[in-house]
Design a protein that fits this description.
Strand order of the largest sheet: 1-2
Radius of gyration: 27 Å
Number of helices: 15
Structural class: mainly alpha
Strand content: under 5%
């Protein structure tokens, strides 16, 4: 006698886990479409790097030049010197960023050690708000403070400390340190959020057990909190290695002027200046492609190194 397979087929079709998975897929579908439209569809523009494209001329009528623009920074002496200067600025500033990546972690630790909940929330709010202020407004604030007619110069002149005003925003000394200072001021509170979340997820019984063993506040920070935050730090560190040639453009564009450009023109700003200001779309696209490929290689290399050294990786 043949056994009926109808119930098994029905159960398979009505599997609640599959239905839940399909619903989750539908929820994520709009985000996947958005990612495709804004992140992957623009990659078609990479084709400009292989043509001698001039704005206003259709790509089909442009001359195909192959790898000419990719090799241009190495073959042209002027562009080579510009490219070396830009890479020096990019790597130098980003290495400073990486050296201070631990600052948000310690800021989060000390913030969580504040006993007064009201004061802690106040400090966290005041240090997080700058992240939501655009760099244009940030520059406007610093211009009001440090320009020749700014608040600082007016105070120093009124107090008799100086005779002539100084334009601190056009001063080229320690430009990398200044960029780092602006970056930390704007992003310290925001960068601490992920560490605060990691601290709150630490089992409170571990701290209670350490108190029974006689551990003080700093001992608990050193032997419990920091070891639990190190994995989070390494994940962010690996991602930052992949972004070591990605500085963004906003901060450097608004703080750039005729005096400081040579010291803070990073790769992203260099691409912007060549592509939109000078109209050399093909060359700017080629440099952007170099940047993307190198970033991907750096992420995979850092991930592989982390797997060998720490025995774990992020993917």
């Amino acid at each position: 006698m043949k056994k009926s397979t109808q119930p098994a087929v029905t159960a398979k079709r009505n599997n609640p886990r599959k239905k839940a998975g399909f619903r989750l897929f539908l929820l994520t579908l709009p985000f996947l479409i958005g990612i495709f439209i804004f992140s992957y569809l623009p990659l078609a523009g990479w084709s400009y790097a292989f043509f001698d494209y001039k704005p206003g001329v259709p790509l089909s009528e442009s001359e195909f030049v192959g790898l000419k623009w990719f090799l241009m920074p190495f073959n042209n002496a002027v562009l080579r010197s510009q490219f070396v200067r830009v890479m020096k600025n990019t790597l130098g500033i980003n290495l400073l960023y990486m050296a201070t990546m631990i600052a948000p972690m310690f800021f989060a630790i000390f913030l969580m050690e504040i006993r007064s909940t009201r004061y802690r929330k106040l400090v966290q709010t005041l240090t997080t708000i700058p992240n939501f202020i655009s760099w244009v407004l940030v520059y406007s604030a610093f211009f009001a403070l440090f320009s020749t007619e700014g608040l600082l110069n007016n105070l120093l002149i009124n107090w008799g400390l100086i005779d002539t005003p100084t334009n601190y925003l056009a001063d080229t000394s320690h430009m990398w340190i200044k960029m780092l200072g602006y970056h930390l001021w704007k992003g310290l509170g925001w960068g601490a959020i992920v560490y605060i979340s990691a601290i709150t997820s630490i089992d409170s019984e571990i701290y209670e057990a350490s108190e029974i063993d006689g551990a003080g506040r700093f001992s608990k920070i050193w032997y419990i909190t920091i070891p639990h935050l190190i994995p989070t730090f390494f994940v962010l560190f690996i991602l930052q290695i992949g972004n070591i040639i990605n500085n963004g453009i906003d901060q450097y564009l608004v703080f750039s002027n005729a005096m400081t450009q040579d010291y803070i023109e990073v790769l992203d700003l260099y691409v912007y200046n060549n592509g939109l200001k000078l109209g050399n779309i093909s060359y700017a696209t080629a440099i952007g492609m170099w940047k993307s490929v190198i970033s991907v290689l750096l992420v995979f290399s850092a991930n592989k190194l982390s797997k060998k050294v720490r025995g774990s990786s992020i993917f």
